[in-house]
Design goal:
About 30% of the residues lie in helices and about 20% in strands. Strands 1, 2, 3, 4, 5, 6, 7, 8, 9 and 10 form a 10-stranded mixed β-sheet that branches. The chain has 3 domains: about 1-70, no CATH class; about 70-100 and about 115-175, no CATH class; about 205-215 and about 230-325, no CATH class. By secondary structure, the chain is an alpha+beta fold. Helix 2 (about 20-35) packs across helix 3.
């Protein structure tokens, strides 16, 4: 194998402890070959890019991925630590979560199967040459379908179940250090919000316009017996507060809208208890975003941090407003 530059060796060296010496040598070949390969990033393409298309013992390189014993979770932890070192001082730790599909093709592929679903977490890192932060993936977990788990005799876990596992991992790695988790409407879940609180994380996601929102309960008089109420009176649905948002919402101008345009929106925000039957209500701050011109549909967002800034998008801590406004017309 070609000698690597010192700068690349410094980046790769922390991962060497994951492998035995022979496996580490093969892993470096695959990494460089993957970076150099054009088209699909397969093991064969990586070997071809490294000039090893005639390698007789090519199975050794395949074994790095399907036989060699090394911990992908430990590798994700090392990568996450390295990425956090890229954050400028004072910038909060913000992690995005989303799902992606690994496309499959071939005669044995079922037509109705879209692919293998992976849950991906990425650290959002601001870069000097980009107006928006870059999402750098560091942790992925496979979320098999219900049919695949039933066929393998495994207990089925949903995408949200795997997300909870990932939140626990990241929380353990950060050792009680506060961080933020941003996801789309699929991650709008009270159970996930409670788990984020346990792991010192602030969850930011979409909120349904018909979400069950309640006021906080009144203080219980001293000496009153019985179970204490978990929530107060039912609040007006966000879907019925659109006109209030258009007339009373705070006016916000986004200078870097899509395609470099400027966009004016109105934001209405308050705190409430979000409730689903059978689950302890979760206190949230919600933000209702409307387009005064009526061209874009109204959207609602929430955060589990009640003190989260909501309007001052120039502040590095105002991730709720920033996430809401940037993702506003994604649906």
């Amino acid at each position: 194998m070609l000698a690597l530059p010192v700068s690349i060796v410094a980046v790769l060296q922390p991962f060497a402890s994951l492998f035995t010496s022979p496996t580490w040598a093969h892993a470096q070949v695959l990494l460089l070959g993957t970076l150099l390969a054009q088209g699909p990033r397969t093991v064969t393409a990586a070997l071809r890019a490294m000039g090893l298309s005639g390698e007789r013992r090519f199975e050794r390189y395949h074994r790095v991925l399907n036989r060699a014993r090394w911990s992908g979770i430990r590798g994700a932890q090392i990568l996450f630590g390295r990425l956090i070192g890229l954050l400028p001082p004072g910038v909060p730790i913000v992690v995005g979560v989303d799902e992606t599909l690994e496309r499959r093709s071939g005669r044995r592929t079922v037509v109705t199967t879209m692919g293998l679903e992976w849950v991906v977490m990425a650290l959002l890192v601001p870069l000097p040459w980009s107006q928006r932060p870059w999402a750098l993936p560091f942790l992925t977990l496979l979320a098999p379908s219900q049919a695949a788990n039933d066929a393998a005799g495994r207990v089925h876990r949903t995408t949200l179940d795997w997300t909870v596992v990932m939140v626990r991992l990241v929380g353990r790695w950060l050792q009680r250090r506060p961080w933020m988790l941003i996801g789309d409407g699929r991650y709008s879940c009270i159970e996930l919000g409670w788990q984020c609180r346990i792991q010192q994380a602030t969850l930011i996601s979409r909120l349904r316009l018909d979400a069950r929102l309640f006021a906080f309960p009144e203080p219980v008089p001293p000496g009153r017996r019985g179970r204490k109420p978990q929530k107060g009176q039912r609040l007006t649905k966000l879907a019925d507060r659109l006109e209030q948002a258009r007339t009373q919402g705070e006016r916000v101008t986004i200078h870097q809208w899509y395609r470099g345009e400027r966009k004016t929106l109105r934001l209405l925000s308050d705190i409430a208890l979000w409730h689903t039957p059978g689950i302890t209500p979760l206190s949230i701050r919600w933000v209702l975003v409307v387009d005064p011109e009526g061209r874009l549909p109204a959207q609602a967002f929430f955060t589990t941090s009640l003190n989260q800034a909501t309007v001052n998008c120039s502040s590095s801590s105002s991730w709720l407003a920033d996430a809401a406004l940037r993702r506003y017309h994604a649906v």
